[in-house]
TrEMBL record:
Belongs to the peptidase M36 family. It comes from the Bacteria. InterPro entries: FTP_domain, Fungal_virulence_M36, PA_dom_sf, PA_domain, Peptidase_M36, Peptidase_M4/M1_CTD_sf, Secre_tail. Residues 67-101 form the FTP domain. PANTHER family: EXTRACELLULAR METALLOPROTEINASE MEP. Residues 385-404 are annotated as: Disordered. This is Peptidase.
């Protein structure tokens, strides 16, 4: 590793001098410094941070929110001029006062700091991180420059991006503040963008998180029968949502796209349609194909200011992927037949991906995810924030299957979305036809995801490939070493053992030897679609994989001197294309929104994966943009049903569908304490999985979905996602503003409190009561507790709403708690074995009592007038935990019941 030590020493000297001179004065540069300083020293400040802990604070970022009129100021602590990692407090300032204070300062810093001088340099820290993550030889890494207080090193052989390194303090497991090098490495294969803190004295990894949020949607849904097919829909032409929303002001670039237009969720939910000039004039004033801010498109392909959509079939994460070209007229109308290899409709897939990324950009721009807040744009048109970070959206990514991910670095660095192909639903067809001999007949097989598409059968004699066993493997038929029978393979179909090397290596070896196709024989593993590996992009011949028994029989027959003539064909089943599931694409984009808005756009580590609510926000983003007139909150909605080839009312990728009905989704805050989740997949198979990130996210989205329907019930639904005034639009506003206000490393209570603060800023508190009702119903009431930080087993749920006399509720227009209090009724005995009595002190009118078991099944329902005592007969019910929902005009609450 070559390094210019003179430059680095001078950089660190200047950095240290800058810190010592600026120090506390850094805060004074903010026009809100006086307001913040006054608040920190006032009795209102309940953070209990000592004066010495506040001596070195700087403004990490300031963002003004147009909707709320709030200045969101993000304060970061330092010690001796060195930043404390994620010690970021979000301060909301309105009308020259501190409106909201999400305190995340470290306390008693002086006592907890363990060291002040590093023993390792930045290069050594990079080496330690590379070793920890098993990234291999780091190659030539050199110091390049200083940028935003960080030393920037070259990529070497381990990263796709330059490696920024900064000296910070970070908290370890013992609660000490240790000096560490903070650095990030975007791994070559794109599966991880590690943000890591390396102890600057010992080289140990103190903590780390991954900016690539990989959703692992495949879960345990292993059995996917072909139970749903896309409709044979006719094509129609539409303008998005209300005509007046866009048509009068849209940039007149003539663009049109044949896509699954919102609110259509997927091919299972409706037909494609032509959308014309859909770019929103406020969010994308020069259209979707502009980058220079001057009228006229810079690109006629699926590339522009907000996103560059291209394929990554070969999994090289480069810029050489295919982007469909709409020509000078920007006409992206291509034919689609879903019953074929997905590569046959790559143009349509990429156009849909381009469309939904742009629509997500434009819609959420209206609610506050704009340039100053860190949105994704190549050119910010002078509106604040850092530019050069349009989304790189990759269709039919060859790096995996049954998944999707989104990588979100800090503002000014481009995120990447990777959309994969999903399960081939149904029974494999006869991809191999043997035309002669004792083995004549059809055999099942899977086509590769790279090389030529088998649009028509390829017919030739079969020849077993042999190699020289030169060191890569010990199997002479796996094409992992030098091919020795090229002359025999010329013009033939090569038969190859699965072996140990990449499929792309095998196919390229066979092609270079003159084979016109390849037949891969698997080992003890099940056959399936083959990925390209590092060199698959160079392969131009088709290939399929067959099972071991069939392959062994073919090889044995050829070994006996038989001539076998065969045909390879694409007989299905066909994989699902993730870029057609708008809800999942929106989910991935949503990770970028929640990451950029939490703790400020310069900090990508504030949604800590130890308690990742981001999965919940992302599910919610997908649900919101696919709501339709006529929908009701009690209807269960799954996520990713198209990708899993399920009916539209299927379970999807979660263990529960989203619904306001506890019989469909009974999750409450207490469910976040479960370490292992049991349930059934869509086919009724028992499953046990330990995926806490996604499970916790499901609980959070359940609450947000309930909140949305409470708003819709009060204000109605408006299909105009841009400029509408319905309850769904209000929910979108309050959630986005809540993200800005909740602070770094939020847990459920901080998420709830951010939303409450957002409502206070947006409406003066008109919906405080509605919000409390919703969260309390799911156990996130006023006396709920997150437990200890970063512990996942000590959350305490509570179903209480605030006292109606609370001043914050003064402007409420509705509150069920104002009509009843928890003290107005009681439930006994609990636990119970025969009868459960509900006793009310006042007349709560007609109600429905519904008892739901832990699996969401409704086991008892009773409609009655709730005054005095009402009894429920629970004899015969299995022992366990149940939820009793009491719902009427004056009450809507849930209580846990234990049956002995």
């Amino acid at each position: 590793m070559k390094r210019d030590y003179t430059k680095i020493v001078m950089f660190l000297f200047v950095l240290a001098f800058t810190f010592s001179v600026k120090g506390q004065s850094e805060l004074s540069k903010s026009k809100y410094a006086g307001i913040i300083t006054s608040y920190l020293s006032s009795s209102e400040n309940a953070s209990k941070v000592s004066g010495s802990d506040l001596t070195d604070i700087y403004v990490n970022r300031e963002v003004f929110s147009k909707k709320t009129g709030i200045a969101n100021v993000y304060l970061n602590q330092r010690y001796n001029g060195i930043k404390i990692y994620n010690a970021i407090t979000a301060v909301g300032i309105k009308n020259n006062k501190v409106f909201h204070f999400a305190e995340k300062f470290q306390k008693n810093i002086e006592e907890r700091v363990t060291s002040k001088t590093p023993l390792l340099n930045e290069s050594q820290a990079i080496e330690k991180a590379a070793t920890y993550f098993k990234l291999g030889a780091i190659g030539e890494i050199q110091y390049i420059e200083s940028e935003k207080g960080k030393a920037v090193f070259s990529k070497g052989a381990i990263s796709q991006e330059n490696i920024p390194v900064e000296l910070v303090y970070t908290e370890n497991e013992d609660g000490d503040l240790v000096l560490a090098w903070d650095l990030s490495i975007y791994t070559i294969e794109s599966s991880h963008w590690w943000s890591v803190r390396v102890d600057a004295r010992t080289g140990e990894i103190v903590n780390h998180n991954d900016w690539v949020i990989s959703c692992n949607f495949d879960g345990n849904h292993s059995n996917h029968s072909d139970n749903h097919k896309a409709g044979n829909y006719s094509k129609s032409s539409v303008n998005l949502f209300k005509a007046e929303s866009n048509s009068l002001y849209t940039p007149a670039d003539g663009s049109q796209y044949n896509v699954y237009a919102l609110p259509t969720e997927s091919p299972f939910h409706g037909p494609r349609s032509i959308v014309t000039q859909p770019a929103d004039a406020t969010a994308s004033p020069f259209g979707w194909h502009d980058t220079d801010g001057i009228a006229g498109a810079e690109y006629t392909i699926t590339r522009g200011n907000n996103v560059w959509a291209l394929d990554d079939i070969n999994d090289n994460d480069g810029t050489d992927g295919f982007s469909p070209d709409g020509g000078a007229s920007l006409n992206f109308d291509f034919p689609l037949n879903l019953d074929q290899n997905p590569r046959g409709y790559l143009d349509v897939s990429t156009v849909n991906l381009f469309y939904i990324n742009n629509v997500m950009h434009d819609i959420w721009y209206q609610y506050g995810f704009d340039e100053a807040s860190g949105n994704f744009q190549e050119n910010n048109y002078g509106k604040g924030g850092a530019a050069s970070d349009a989304v790189a959206a990759q269709s039919q990514d060859g790096g995996g299957q049954n998944n999707a991910n989104f990588a979100t670095p800090a503002d000014g660095s481009a995120p990447r979305m990777q959309m994969y192909l999903w399960f081939a639903a149904g029974t494999p067809g006869d991809a191999l036809i043997i035309n002669n001999g004792s083995l004549a007949g059809g055999y099942q097989g899977f086509t590769a995801s790279f090389g030529a598409v088998l649009s028509s059968p390829v017919t030739a004699d079969l020849v077993v490939l042999t190699d020289d066993d030169g060191g890569e493997s010990t199997d002479p038929n796996d094409a992992c070493d030098l091919v020795t029978n090229a002359a025999a393979l010329n013009g033939k179909i090569a038969v190859i053992r699965r072996g140990t090397c990449e499929f792309g290596v095998k196919m390229l070896a066979a092609e270079n030897a003159g084979a016109i196709a390849a037949l891969v024989v698997t080992d003890d593993r099940e056959p399936g679609p083959m990925g390209p590996g590092a060199v698959g992009d160079q392969v131009t011949i088709p290939s399929i994989m067959i099972d071991k028994a069939t392959g062994d029989a073919i090889i044995a027959s050829l070994g006996n001197g038989d001539t076998i003539n065969a045909s390879l064909q694409d007989a299905g089943p066909y994989q699902r294309d993730g870029s057609f599931d708008n809800g999942v694409v929106a989910h991935e984009y949503g990770h970028g929104i929640s990451t950029r808005l939490t703790g400020g756009a310069d900090n990508s580590g504030c949604l800590n994966s130890n308690f990742q609510m981001g999965e919940g926000w992302s599910d919610w983003f997908g649900l919101m943009i696919t709501m339709k007139p006529g929908d009701v909150g009690t209807t269960g909605r799954g996520i990713g049903t198209f990708d899993l080839n399920q009916p539209n009312d299927g379970l999807g990728i979660r263990l529960r569908r989203y619904s306001t009905d506890f019989a469909v989704n009974e999750y409450t805050f207490d469910a976040t304490n479960d370490n292992t989740v049991e349930g059934q997949d869509v086919d009724g198979n028992d499953i046990i999985r330990n995926r806490r990130v996604h499970y916790i996210g499901t609980v959070w989205c359940t609450m947000l979905w309930d909140l949305t329907w409470a708003y819709v019930d009060k204000y109605g639904f408006d299909p105009d996602l841009y400029n509408g005034t319905g309850g769904n639009n209000r929910a979108m506003s309050v959630v986005i503003e809540g993200l800005k206000l909740q602070g770094c490393n939020p847990e459920f209570l901080e998420g709830r409190d951010g939303i409450l603060a957002a409502d206070m800023a947006l409406t003066g508190g008109e919906d405080q009561c509605l919000i409390w009702d919703v969260f309390a119903r799911r156990g996130l009431g006023v006396n709920a507790s997150n437990g200890l930080p970063f512990r996942r087993e000590d959350q305490v749920e509570n179903f209480d709403t605030p006292d109606p006399a609370d001043p914050s509720l003064a402007n409420c227009t509705t509150l069920s708690a104002a009509k009843f209090n928890a003290s107005d009724y009681s439930i006994f005995p609990n636990p119970a074995s025969n009868l459960v009595t509900v006793k009310s002190k006042k007349d709560l009118g007609d109600v429905t009592l519904k008892l739901v078991d832990i699996n969401g099944r409704e086991v008892l329902t009773k409609r009655t007038s709730l005054i005095g005592e009402v009894e429920l007969d629970v004899k015969g019910l299995q022992s366990g935990l149940y939820i009793l929902n009491i719902k009427g005009d004056y009450i809507d609450t849930n209580e846990k019941i234990v049956i002995k």
